[in-house]
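Late entry, evening session. Most of the bench is empty. Finally got around to the prediction I had been postponing all week. Sequence below, unchanged from the version circulated by S.P.
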Amino acid sequence: MKKIETELYELLQIIGPSGQEEEVIHYIRPRMEKVLEHVHLDDYGNLLGETICGSGAGPTILLCAHMDTVDWLAPEREVIREGDVLTSSAGILGADDRAGMAIVMAVVRNVRATDFSGRLKVAFTREEEVGRYGSKAMERDWLNDVDLAIVVDRRGNRDIVTSRGQIQPFCDPAVGSFFEQAGVAAGMPDWKAVQGGISDACTFASCGINSVNLSAGYLYEHTEKERVDLNWVKETTKLILIALDMLGNQEERLFPDRLCQLDR
């Protein structure tokens, strides 16, 4: 997984606070076009793409991370590597959510080595940090066939966020259990379903889509102490690939439909 390290390092160099994600798009779009079909910007500027894997007869899975950082990168700052940990010499690092982007792209590059057979959709969203405006603006027609949304925008490692506190469930309990089982299959039995905060998973759940938000490997986001562990980044990538492999070719919906749409 050497490429994921290079891609994450390069993403961390790009200035892209909320509302100014153009340089991020310039970097990531040609890479998406090499591995996905129908790559396009929607009317709000979210970068979307999709591809068919295998026969395409199985579920439709959405992978999502956001492109914006919570603040500007400090001028002339450096990304410092000590062992497998990256930090910034000044200001925020920006691993929230560039780590999630790197994980999503690594999954897309490697998904055809799994038994997954279905449709894979990818969304890199704008302005998540200031109110999830990008995901809220996504066309519902593009989301209508999504069976499961996997957002990668949670601090730390081993967290499977299945609700926004006690306010908003993101998915049927079977979804959290499935990802815990995928963790066991991947040799990481300490992945656990937990409550969490606001992310694009809130938006997809409000559309009636079973959704989770997975740890992306960073800590102390939005502060000068922000850091990201490359091993944790690779472990989340492995978890998603194992989960897709376990999904295999499910011609029927794997998880129960949500009974109602939730308030945004």
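Two things to note before I forget:
The CA atoms of residues 95 and 218 lie 6 Å apart.
The first helix runs from residue 2 to 11.
Will write this up properly tomorrow.
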